[in-house]
Write a structure and sequence with these properties.
Length: 207
């Protein structure tokens, strides 16, 4: 009997933390079931990168693949959750054998989500970590806060190392209750033509 799927997506609602400078998400009702309407319809206003979401190569790579051009198997497959202590994810934290795997990093970032405002001091992937993930053949890289790069970096080395080598990125996953180990991952984006990112409903199940 297969293990159950575990939702690792953070809920989307008004007032959630946003990347500084991005407009806040707004969820509103266009109609409510009642005397004047037979259906409830909601309106969603958001940027392409918020809460649990994926980055396509086009996010940082000129002429890179946009969301609809990335094969679905690059957003899913065999995964490994790696727990990291400290303030950055470096070369030594990257599994030596991660060829074709979705590598998700569990850090102290999980504690930051108790705040309703953006937290700048999140754990990030260093340049050495990004290059190691590319060199060792990871298929997808996931982190448990809003960016793989350090907040305030001027050159975004992790994004360039990862996306520049055709590896997809999954950000802001909820790994607080996930034990390190081997899993199956699904994190399919919306089929938005020409877009650089998309919110996802990401899930894991144990192998």
């Amino acid at each position: 009997m297969a293990h159950p799927w575990i939702d690792i997506s953070y809920p989307i609602e008004n007032g959630i933390p946003q990347w500084p400078g991005d407009p806040p998400i707004q969820i509103s009702r266009l109609s409510e079931i009642g005397p004047n309407s037979v259906a409830q319809v909601s309106r969603l206003d958001f940027v392409s990168h918020f809460m649990t979401h994926v980055d396509a190569p086009a996010h940082f790579i000129k002429d890179g693949e946009t969301i609809e051009k990335v094969a679905l198997d690059r957003w899913s497959g065999d995964a490994v959750v790696v727990e990291v202590e400290g303030d950055s994810i470096d070369e030594q934290h990257v599994p030596l054998d991660c060829q074709g795997l979705c590598v998700l990093f569990k850090t102290r970032n999980g504690d930051l989500w108790q705040h309703r405002t953006f937290q700048e001091n999140f754990v990030y992937i260093s340049e050495s970590g990004g290059k190691a993930l590319a060199a060792r053949g990871a298929k997808l890289v996931g982190v448990d806060y809003m960016s793989v790069d350090r907040f305030g970096t001027p050159d975004f080395p992790a994004h360039y190392a990862i996306l520049g080598n055709g590896i997809t990125i999954l950000e802001a996953v909820d790994l607080r209750h996930i034990a390190p180990g081997n899993y199956e991952l699904v994190a399919f984006p919306l089929n938005i033509v020409g877009c650089d990112g998309s919110p996802v409903r990401a899930a894991l199940r144990a192998r």
